[in-house]
Amino acid sequence: MFHAFRTAFSTAMLERSTLFINHVLSSEPMAMQRLRAHRGRRVRLRAQSWPSPLPALPDAAWQITAAGLLEWCGEATDVEAALQLDIDASNPARLALLALAGQKPSIEVAGDAALAADVNWLIDNLRWDVEGDLEGLVGPAAAHQLSELGRTVAAALQGAAQSLANLGRDGGRSAPP
Fold first, then answer.
1. What's the CA gap between 159 and 167, in Å, rounded?
2. What does the pLDDT read at residue 124?
3. d(Cα 82, Cα 41) in Å, to the nearest integer?
4. Which has the closest alpha carbon to 100: 22, 164, 15?
5. Pairing of strands 60-64, 42-48
6. Which end of the chain is more exposed for a tag (fewer CB within 10 A), N or C?
7. What's the domain count of the chain?
8. What pTM does this model have?
9. Is 73 contained in some domain?
10. Residue 15 near residue 72, CB atoms below 8 Å
11. Do 97 and 10 lie in a common domain?
């Protein structure tokens, strides 16, 4: 029963993630243009060295559409990919802290160099316009206020994550005053 729940949850998360990624991609015409050049090609993302006590993360694969968006390839694990991205997930907490601090995790890339360069450009340049999306729900003034609040909270979380990351690197030692 747990396996069925985990499979359904993973499927739902990957479907929602694909919708979110496409939403962000569609807000940036240059991103879609870069991906259009690779239509029909597939990208696979794998979490490597995931801790065994935790439920395993599924591999995720997407095919690039003619529109320059992504289509999730489903639960097929044998999808041949033009680009393979392996994320070091041996320490999920550290991975989360890096994400909160706005840093890239350790990623091994194998496959097509041109596609890898375009995916790297996407990672470096795509940003979600939260305020723009909120405007449609609550109006421009409230969206601005909520965005400011979100930026303040995000900055505080990034500062805390960076402090924790530095603490982990120092091994708890701090420099004398």
1. 12
2. 82
3. 6
4. 164
5. antiparallel
6. C
7. 2
8. 0.71
9. yes
10. yes
11. yes
pLDDT of residue 161: 62
Whose CA is closest to 79, among 42, 38, 106?
Answer: 42
| The pLDDT of residue 141 | 84
- Across 58-140, the runs of DSSP E, i.e. the strands, are 60-64, 70-72, 83-88, 107-111
Q: Are 94 and 166 in a shared domain?
A: no
The DSSP secondary-structure symbol of 135 reads: H
Written as six digits, the tokens of 61 are: 């694969």
Please tell me whether residues 104 and 155 are part of one structural domain: no
In a domain, 66, yes or no: yes
HEC sequence for 14-55: HHHHHHHHHHHHHCCHHHHHHHHCCCCCEEEEEEECCCCCCC
Does 136 share its domain with 111? no
Q: Which two tokens stand for residue 26?
A: 């569609």
Same domain, yes or no: 108 and 136: no
pLDDT mean values, one per 10 residues, the chain (177 residues)? 66 89 91 96 91 80 96 82 91 76 79 94 78 72 75 69 65 51
Residue 97 lies in a domain: yes
What residues make up the domain containing 156? 131-170
Structure tokens given for 70: 């992504």
Dig out the tokens for 103 from the structure: 């840093």
